[in-house]
């Protein structure tokens, strides 16, 4: 037996009184309410950019029209962002404390005690390496008699070379002698053949006797520690390992 159905508008007689049952012209299709899709969510980058724009707008408004209301609105919004930044900074720090593989200070300490210990260990490693450096490496020292900086740098380099048994070949760029390196030679194209461009002095170059490779150490006046640190870094550390 046919059951009552929802009548089609205007068909009361055929679909209502006569109860024709489930016919296509009597049954209304299921009408789903039109659903408006929600607006797409903004990405975090877009939200942050919107905050920056709002902050800039409030600041500009407060400067161009410095009413009490405009200034308060700017300061209030700015304070909200400062609070957000402070929360981020605090969360960052706590996360690093609990996730040691992300904590850079374990690799390169910043505290006075930790930094001193790191430097002491680094210096011990450096001195151990430099003690045997002369077995493989030598130094080319390009200087000029007329170079005032060379007069300062030469005795520094001499002390480093003597204390670590490193051979230094001093090369005079202008033919003049060196008080600290009496066994000097005059440049006859050595610098150009080594691929060291320019004529800046003093110039210090490390030479690898095994690979026949030249490694510029530095130009200008360097302290003894700088010379040793640079040689150690260039010969025994990977790029980025200290950072």
What percentage of amino acids are in beta strands? 5-15%
- Low-confidence runs of at least 5 consecutive residues: 1-10
Could you describe the largest sheet, including whether it forms a barrel? 5 strands, mixed
Indicate the overall shape: elongated
Distance between the termini: 85 Å
Number of helices: 7
* Class of secondary structure makeup: alpha/beta
Q: What number is the mean pLDDT?
A: 83
Please describe what this structure looks like:
With 243 residues, this protein is an alpha/beta fold. The protein is 46% helix and 11% strand. It has 7 helices and 5 strands. The protein has helices at 12-17, 44-64, 68-98, 112-131, 148-163, 190-193, 224-236; strands at 137-143, 168-172, 185-186, 203-208, 213-219. A 5-stranded mixed β-sheet has the order 3-2-1-4-5, with helices on one face. Helix 4 packs across helix 7 (224-236). The longest helix has 31 residues, at 68-98. The termini are far apart.
Any key phrases for this structure?
disordered N terminus; 5-stranded mixed β-sheet; alpha/beta; 7 helices; elongated; 243 residues
Task: Annotate the secondary structure layout.
Elements: H1 12-17, H2 44-64, H3 68-98, H4 112-131, E1 137-143, H5 148-163, E2 168-172, E3 185-186, H6 190-193, E4 203-208, E5 213-219, H7 224-236
Parallel strand pairs: 1-2, 2-3
Antiparallel strand pairs: 1-4, 4-5
């Amino acid at each position: 037996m046919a059951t009552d159905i929802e009548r089609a508008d205007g068909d009361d007689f055929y679909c209502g009184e006569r109860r024709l049952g489930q016919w296509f012209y009597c049954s209304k299709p299921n009408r789903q309410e039109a659903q408006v899709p929600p607006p797409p969510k903004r990405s975090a980058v877009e939200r942050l950019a919107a905050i920056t724009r709002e902050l800039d707008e409030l600041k500009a408004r407060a400067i161009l029209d410095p009413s009490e209301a405009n200034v308060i609105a700017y300061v209030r919004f700015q304070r909200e962002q400062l609070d957000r930044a402070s929360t981020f900074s605090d969360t960052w720090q706590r996360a690093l404390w609990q996730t040691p593989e992300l904590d850079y200070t374990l690799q390169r300490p910043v505290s006075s005690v930790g930094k001193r210990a790191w430097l002491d260990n680094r210096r011990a490693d450096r001195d151990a390496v430099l003690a045997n450096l002369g077995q493989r490496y030598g130094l080319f020292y390009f200087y000029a008699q007329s170079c005032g900086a060379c007069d300062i740098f030469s005795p520094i380099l001499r002390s480093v070379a003597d204390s670590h048994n490193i051979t230094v070949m001093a090369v005079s760029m202008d033919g003049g002698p060196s008080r600290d390196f009496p066994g000097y030679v005059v440049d006859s194209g050595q610098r150009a053949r080594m691929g060291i461009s320019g004529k800046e002095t003093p110039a210090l170059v490390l030479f690898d006797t095994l690979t026949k490779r030249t490694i510029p150490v530095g130009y200008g006046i360097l302290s003894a520690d700088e010379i040793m640190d640079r040689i150690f870094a260039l010969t025994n550390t990977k790029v980025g390992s200290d950072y």
